[in-house]
Design goal:
six-stranded antiparallel β-sheet; mainly beta; 1 helix; globular; 139 residues; single chain
Length: 139
């Protein structure tokens, strides 16, 4: 057993995010048969991901602030600290900090058989799409 090294915080790329978003890796695979990746991700107010999907799905545990999660059907869910959102494999979605507050979540996902296919990034969520989002409270 060992204490993992602490990698530096990195800013996520504008190709995949709008606004300021930072990531702190928590855990990653040590061996070829391991798949789990965990990271702490922090969003500035109104910052958001581009549309994307995950080959094996994703869990997102909100730890601070208010998160919005949207899907292609126009559903937007508001998630608060202590709640966990699950997106199934292949589901296009985005995540964001609600306007006016920072948001932090822990992202947990498993790599695909081809690690390069774990996350499929798509187009940005436009300002217009984001501004007309009408979130429903998370269950």
């Amino acid at each position: 057993m060992n204490i993992e090294p602490t990698p530096p915080t990195t800013k996520n790329p504008p190709k995949q995010f709008i606004g300021d978003v930072w990531v702190d890796p928590i855990a990653g695979p040590h061996d070829a048969d391991q798949r789990m990746t965990v990271a702490l991700v922090r969003f500035a107010p109104g910052a958001r991901t581009a549309w994307h999907s995950h080959a094996r799905g994703q869990y997102l545990r909100v730890t601070q602030g208010v998160a919005w999660f949207g899907d292609r059907e126009g559903n937007v869910i508001e998630v608060r600290p202590g709640q966990t959102l699950y997106t199934p494999p292949g589901q296009d979605h985005w995540h964001a900090a609600a306007p006016g507050c920072f948001m932090e979540h822990i992202a947990m996902l498993e790599s695909a058989d081809d690690p390069a296919a774990t996350t499929t990034w798509k187009e940005h969520v436009s300002d217009e799409e984001f501004e007309r989002s009408s979130p429903q409270p998370g269950a």
